[in-house]
Amino acid sequence: MKDTIDININEHQLTLLPMGGVFHGATETLFITDTHFGKDVTFRKHSIPVPSGSTFATISKIKSLVQLTSAKQLVILGDMFHAPSSMSKEITDTIDEFTTHDCPQLTISLVPGNHDQNLPNFPRHWKIRQLESTTTWGGLVLSHFPLNSNEKIGPVLCGHIHPAVHVGSHTDRLKLPCFLHRKNHLVLPAIGDFTGTKVIHRRSGDRIWLLAEQQVIPWRN
Fold first, then answer.
1. How far is Cα 96 from Cα 98, in angstroms, rounded to an integer?
2. Beta carbons within 10 angstroms of residue 130's beta carbon
3. What is the pLDDT of residues 50-97, one digit of tens each?
4. Contact of 76 with 137, CB cutoff 8 Å
5. Quick one: 212 exposed, middle or buried, by C-beta within 10 A (0-12, 13-18, 19+)?
6. How many Å separate Cα 68 from the centre of its chain?
């Protein structure tokens, strides 16, 4: 696939995708994390003036990745919605369109994250399967949060951190989201169109791939 990178972690073949997804060909699964649907709605309910449309933009990214990979399954590694107040009619209608019309063949599962707590039950016709907070999937370990790195498990796919790095000089630099492979974890960047990032500091043994201009680029600092 163009503008993607294939990697091997503990004999598992994974494809890093532009816009922040990971494709596991052995199970035909697309993994994404931290969609934070409806975050802009929650902000406006608290009188914080932010633009609308971030959920539609995020869904558009996901549809593009499903088409790119021909994935049969989609797993969201936590923080699907930003808060209970994010589930406005506009947002749920957008999810309706995605699950029932755009990708009706797609099986969707959710690994719960911290922002998924106290959400109302999803509509049944979304057919979103709720997984355990730590679960296995085709030999991979799935979690929203990074797990204890001393445990001999993995490889672990997770989110939560929203990793990014600074590139360039101190006077002229950019902050770019990234994939981070640290020990037995592959941390995915947040795919949500309206999410922050956390700058990480490279450690010995880390592998990092940048997301820039719809491409995945190895970072050789």
1. 5
2. 11
3. 656 789 999 999 999 999 999 999 999 999 988 878 888 889 999 999
4. no
5. middle
6. 16
